[in-house]
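Before relying on records like the one below, remember that each one covers exactly one chain. Contacts with other chains, cofactors or solvent are not represented anywhere in the record.
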Amino acid sequence: MTAREDFIATFGGVFEHSPFIAERAYDAGLIFVPLTAKGVHAAMVAEFRKSSGEERLGVLRAHPDLAGRLAIAGELTKDSRNEQAGAGLDRLTADEHARFTAMNAAYTVKFGFPFIIAVKGLNKDDILSAFEARIGNSAEEEFSTACAQVERIALLRLSALLPEG
C-alpha cells in the first residue's frame, strides 16, 4: 500500500463517507509528517471549503439522522455509532425517539440534509434544544452552521486518531 493509499484508508472517513476530501488534501501536498490532528484537520478543512456547494451538500447528506433508522438498524459507521451513544441517543424512550424522528423529518424537509451537530459533550436535551433553535434558521445560515459542525466532528475524530500538534 502506498503512503497515499494508507492515508486515505486511515482518514477517508473523517468527513462522513467522503474520502475525496482526504484524497484532495493529500494530492494538494498539504499533509506533512509528523501527522497531527490540527495539521491534518487544517488540510482537510481547506479542501472541504474549496469543494463546490454540491460537493459540500453531498458531505452533509452523507451524515445519518440522529437516532434515526440507520442507528436502529445498526448500520451507522463506527464513529457515528460511538458519537451518538456517547450522547445517550442509543437509550431514548419511545417518546424521545418519536420526538427525534419528527425533528429529523421536519429539518430534512426544510433544509434538504440531516441535522448535524458534534454531539461530544452533549446530551439528548442539549441536542433537542439545538434542533429547536436551528430549525428556525435560514437555508444559508443552516448550511453554514452544518458545515461548521462537520468540520468540528472531523477535528474530534482526528483528535482520537492523532496527537493534537
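The chain has a mean pLDDT of 90.
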